[in-house]
Write a sequence for this structure.
């Protein structure tokens, strides 16, 4: 075969494959055009196992939901968090253009399941809520002003943190001070006033009436009290993922599931008399709600679920809903 005929054959081959390529391209283009004309990209949204609609933008909708969890509907400065138990799932699909997406309805359906929690502070006199204030600094301010005025009832006043689904009505600082102030009795045998650290909360440690054991072994990675960003309601005990967590005392499991408020897989045990213990961020749960557990029973495996930076157990002791410093009862002096 001559060189010329090889070149000819090659050109014919190229022409053939080029024609084929063009045909395929046109077909793809026509199919795409039909898709674009009649169909649109959308997401099937499932919530709690059920299809609740179609949304046009998964990222926009999820961003709105996340924003809601963080801020709720308002810019209320007392909003602590919104608890939405379940988040929707999305599946990409092509939807006939005639079918409307309903992002707004889906958003409303998801957030309607949310429970908003507010955080504020109660000023108590003799363990009874007298006034509510918005911020901890306001509460401290009131205690300090009463101290400066040498109010006679300082030992009966304390600040208690409240998390509630209803926001209390707040009282102005000066009104709280004048309402709480108690004059010292007249006979002025100057009392031996020992200036103590101004911390009304730390003076009051409720007696649980039960003994607790340390629920998990590990190192204390974060303590109870005021942190830079939030008020830490528990004690963090860090160890490796899977470390067994035990019931600190006997009681009934009242919660054992994923908590979207930041606790991750959470166990709550009720010990009666308003005493509860919380165990957060678990990787596995070994108990179910309604189950009775004895002190020391394994209830969960350590993890890092929820808002957590590494495997640890977030342990809380609450008395009538108020978080207490766990180190007054367990892990003392650690
Ligand atoms: Zn914690």
């Amino acid at each position: 075969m001559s060189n010329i005929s090889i070149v000819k054959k090659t050109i014919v081959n190229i022409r053939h494959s080029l024609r084929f390529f063009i045909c395929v391209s046109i077909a793809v283009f026509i199919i795409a055009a039909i898709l674009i004309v009649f169909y649109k990209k959308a997401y099937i949204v499932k919530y709690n196992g059920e299809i609740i609609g179609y949304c046009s933008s998964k990222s926009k909708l999820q961003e709105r939901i996340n924003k809601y969890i963080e801020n709720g509907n308002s810019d209320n400065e007392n909003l602590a968090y919104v608890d939405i138990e379940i988040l929707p799932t999305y599946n990409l699909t092509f939807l006939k253009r005639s079918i409307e997406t309903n992002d707004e309805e889906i958003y409303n359906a998801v957030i309607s399941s949310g429970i908003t929690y507010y955080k504020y502070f109660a000023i108590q006199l003799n363990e009874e809520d007298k006034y509510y204030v918005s911020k901890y600094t306001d509460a401290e301010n009131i205690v300090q002003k009463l101290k400066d005025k040498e109010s006679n009832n300082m030992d009966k006043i304390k600040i208690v943190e409240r998390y509630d689904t209803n926001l209390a009505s707040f009282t102005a600082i000066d009104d709280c001070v004048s309402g709480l102030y108690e004059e010292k009795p007249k006979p002025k045998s100057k009392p031996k006033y020992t200036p103590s650290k101004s911390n009304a909360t730390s003076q009051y440690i409720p007696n649980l009436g039960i003994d607790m054991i340390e629920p998990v072994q590990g190192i204390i990675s974060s303590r109870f009290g005021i942190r830079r960003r939030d008020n830490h309601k528990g004690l963090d005990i860090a160890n490796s993922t899977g470390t067994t967590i035990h019931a600190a005392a006997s009681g009934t499991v009242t919660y054992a599931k994923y908590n979207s408020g930041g606790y991750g897989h959470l166990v709550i045990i009720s010990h009666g008399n308003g005493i509860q213990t919380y165990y957060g961020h678990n990787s596995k749960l070994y108990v179910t709600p309604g189950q009775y557990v004895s002190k020391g029973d394994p209830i969960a495996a350590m993890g890092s679920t929820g808002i957590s930076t590494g495997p640890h157990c977030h342990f809380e002791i609450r008395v009538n809903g108020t978080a207490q410093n766990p180190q007054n009862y367990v892990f003392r002096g650690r």
Notes: Residues 222, 232, 234, 236, 314 surround zinc ion (CB under 6 Å).
